[in-house]
Each structure stands twice: as C-alpha cells, then as structure tokens.
Amino acid sequence: MNAPWKPAGNALRDPFQAFVCDEHSFDVVRSIAIEMGWPPEKVNKGGLRNAVQSLSVSTSPQILFVDMSESGDPLNDINGLAEVCEPGTVVIAAGQVNDVRLYRDLVASGIQDYLLKPFGPDQLRDAVAQAQAVFLAPRTDAGAERAHLAVAVIGTRGGAGASTIATSLSWMLSDKAKRLTALLDLDVHFGTGALAMDLEPGRGLTDAIDNPSRIDGLFIERAMVRASDKLAILSAEAPISQPMMTDGGAFYQLQEEFRSAFECSVLDLPRAMLIQHPHLMNEVNVAIVVTELTLAAARDSIRILSWLKSNTPQTRVLVVANRVHANALEISRKDFEQSIERKVDIVIPFDTRIASQAAKLGKTFAEVAKGSKVGIACTALMTEVQGAVEESDGAAKPGKGGGSLLGKFDLKAMMPKGKGAKKVAAD
User: Fold this and answer.
1) Whole-prediction pTM value?
2) Are the beta carbons of 209 and 244 closer than 8 angstroms?
3) What pLDDT digit, counting tens, does each position of 305-341 carry?
4) Closest residue by Cα to residue 133 from 176, 89, 91
C-alpha cells in the first residue's frame, strides 16, 4: 500500500517542525528539538488543523510532529494533512485515544508512529530516532524493485544474546522500517525464534531439511509462521534424538526463495553452522557479531572476525556488545576493542527487567524496550544495518585477527589481587 509520505531527501526543508495542543507536550517537544540542535521556534502551538493551514502555504519539513488530541475526525484530518505535505515528510502523531484500530488505520495512512499522551522525553526521542532512520533509508523509485537486504546474526559465545538480537532486528525491520521480513532460525534443535514471539514453530524447517527439492515459493508460503503482516518465521524444535543430516543445500535454497519473496531476511546463524556451512554467508550483506565483554568472547570474536574478513570480504561487519553491565565488566570496552583491533559498533545495556517482561509478554526485546536506553540502542542497530548496504564498497572491516589473545591484555591488572596472575608479554 502506498503511503502519503514516501521518504525522500530534500536539503532545502527544515529538519523538524511540530504542532502541539498542550503545555506539557510543548515543553517535551521543545526540549527534544533543542537537544537535537533544531530551532525551538519550529515548535508551534495548535494541533493537526493548524498544521494543515500552516503547511498549505509553506514547505513541509523532513520530520513533522502533529498533535491530534483536538481533532474530531483524526483519519479525515490526516488525509487533509497528506494533501498539503510534500512527498518525503515523515510524520509522528500524538493523541489521547488508546485504540489499536485507530493506530493501525493511522499507520496504514502513512503515519510513521503514534504516541499516546501524555508522553515522556524518552518516548519522543525514540520516535524521532526511528523517523530519522526512515528518512535516511535507501530511496527507490516507486516502480523499482527494492533490493533484498540479507543479515546474518552470529553469537561469539552461547548466551551472548544473538537470538535476542536476531528476533529484535526482524521485528524492527518489519514493524518500524515497514519491510517484508523473514527470520530463519538455524538452531534446529534449540531455536528460540518462534518462542520469543509466543508462536509454535511448526514443521516447516525440518520438512525443508528432509526434502530440499520441495522448496519453492508455495512451500515458503505454507511453511513459514506469520508473526505479523510483514514478518514471517521459519524455526524448529527438532527432537534431540534426531541428528541433523544435511549438506546445507536446503538452507541455501531457502535463502534463494527468501530473496524473491521478502525485502529482508535475517539469519540467526549459530557459530557451529558458520563452520559447517560457510556458503550460507555468500549473499549476506551485513554480519552482526554479538558478543559479551568477557575474555572467552574476545578470543572467539577475534577468530570469527578473522574468518569473516578472509571468507566474506564483501560483507559489512557490525560488532554488538550485548548485556553490558557498566559496574560488572570482566573486560573494559577499551581493552576489548584493543583486543579485537576494531571498535564496537553498538552497545546494548544489561536490563533484566526488560528481558523478563519480554519473555512474559511473548514479545521481542526491542518491542518491549521502546523508549528506554536499550530501545534506543536497538534502533541505532537497525539504522546501522540499513545504512550499511548503502556503502559502495560493502566490505567488512573487522581489523586484524587470529593473534594471541593473552598478549593483548594485562591479565595481572585485570585479576583480583592475590590470585597470582601470570605475567604475559605483549605481542
């Protein structure tokens, strides 16, 4: 469905403009505008109808915030706003009606996000970050076919949270970026892709492994479990008494079908599968290496990054430090980065409350984390993933790897006193 506001760049536009009805919203929006470096005078009193009147005689901004709380017919007024907005405006709306049907109708009409009043600075900050990601996303002509974005998520250690990142990214690409997305969970026996979204995995993936010749567009349509209109999952819970006997051909065929049927595919790739079936990385645009800040994870990050550099130089690599507890780090971020000889791209804070709430609600980590620091970090990851495919070289730049890890840390300084840590000479 074509939305009234199709993202498109225009350097002559104001970056932001807002029309709000009440003092609380005015103060919150104005403070975020100042924080973003935008002119505070672009935050105006008056709601949706005032926005229509003003924009009918002026250029619409890149990002528009409109307060709908005084509108008697929101959908009709939104259509009126669409008539005066130029193509490319990304719209954030706010209102007092807590109705999921209204939210869906507004999103279908082209609104990027809808905030329930009263909203706080964190909610607005997150919505603005998502709007910027949409505005800066790759542009295509209306009739042009959208290039497929393939992402592989690889954990350096068990428990690093790679599956959490994979499910969260899948949800964000489908819900926030509005891209038709497939999630393929290749942990055939213990995968949690479907479980994280409170879904039954079905037999689709095990059937594909047993009968690769059956994989075609119709098989994909029937085998995948729908999490939403724009997100489908292929996962499994194969019996642990049943070893997986495959040469990986089925997985490659699934990737081929995904390129035809979806705009994005996210591959939750266990590190053992990376070793057994390296061809799975052949067409991957972005590899996300998920790690914790520990000694063992640093060692394995070096090995995986080195492998990616040698075997998939066309792939853009992002390093995500997950579950980072500021006061309980085994290794500091600085030491970790020195060890892997590259920067950590995204840091996701440790937050047990959000993790437990996501598990209880059967929702992805990113969905529950909206408006928090964790949510902002997840949104930044989505923006990095989308932006990565725009780079002309597309090459992974993981830095050097494979050297002696022990020589890259001062272990004596890192260990508690009295442990008698052995001094190891630096490389």
Assistant:
1) 0.60
2) yes
3) 999 999 999 899 999 999 998 777 889 999 999 999 9
4) 176
- Nearest CA to 54 out of 39, 44, 68, 41 is that of 44
List, in sequence order, the alpha helices (H) in 85-185.
100-109, 121-135, 162-175
Please give the biggest Cα pair distance in the chain: 75
Tokens of 162: 């790679």
Structure token pair of residue 152: 């592989």
Q: Are strands 225-228 and 231-234 parallel, antiparallel or unpaired?
A: antiparallel
* Token digits of residue 62: 């890149």
Distance, first Cα to last Cα, the chain: 58
Bridge partners of 84, per DSSP, are none
Residue type, 373: K
Residues 6+ apart with CB under 8 A from 321: 291, 292, 293, 333, 336, 344, 346, 347, 348
Q: Cis omega (within 30 of 0) on the bond before 4?
A: no
Residue 148 structure tokens? 């497929």
Residue-wise pLDDT tens digits, 92-146 = 988 888 877 777 777 777 788 889 888 999 999 988 888 888 777 655 444 345 5
